Amino acid sequence: MEYAVLVIIHVLLAIIIIGGILIGRTAIIPFAGKSGNADFAFNFDKAFSRGSHAALTIQFLVGFRLAMLQLSMGDWFTFESSMSVSIVAKLALWVLLFAWTIIGKKMKLNDPETADLSGLKKYYNVLTIFALALLFFGLNMRLALV
After folding, report:
1. How far is CA 61 from CA 6, 7, 129, 136, in A?
2. Is the backbone of residue 64 left (phi > 0), alpha (psi -120 to 50) or beta?
3. Which of 10, 60, 102, 109 could form a disulfide with 119 if both were Cys (CB 3.0 to 4.6 A apart)?
């Protein structure tokens, strides 16, 4: 029962997070660029960031528990199965994702005061890569693609 509930929570949070990133990248930022209203994109980013940090934290904790249920922690770094490869890849991607959010803030890529949509676009391009990679390795845990 625990496993099923955790999977549902994990998938719902993934939909929210990945969906928000993709909507920001494919709809919000291009619309803001075409309409000349950079504030629209930066307001979206600010609102999305506020909610996504909490969702990402819960997502990470739920995913960590799911990984513990799937494979003992001692076997995570053996790379003997598709599951261990996926777990290590997802852990590495999480570290990179959190590092990128810090780097983006330091470089002021998503700072509304710059009003630079090219920086925000670059920020969301990298977020999109991380989101899709996390999605791929999440699916890999169930489908053994790699």
Report:
1. 10, 12, 21, 19
2. alpha
3. 109
DSSP result, 17-65: HHHHHHHIIIIIHHHHHHHT-HHHHHHHHHHHHHHHHHHHHHHHHHHHH
Contacts of 24 (CB under 8 A, 6+ apart): 41, 44, 45, 48, 124, 127
* Alpha carbon 4 to chain centroid, angstroms: 22
First to last CA, the chain: 28
Q: Which residues, other chains included, contact 92 with Cβ-Cβ below 8 Å and sequence gap of 6+?
A: none
Measured between alpha carbons, how far is 138 from 116 in angstroms, rounded to an integer? 33
List the domain boundaries for the chain: 2-143
Please state the pTM of the whole predicted model. Answer: 0.86
Q: Can you give the pLDDT of all 146 residues of the chain as single tens digits? A: 898 999 999 999 999 999 999 999 999 999 999 998 899 999 999 999 888 889 989 999 999 999 999 888 888 999 888 889 999 999 999 999 989 988 988 888 888 888 789 899 999 999 999 999 999 998 888 887 76
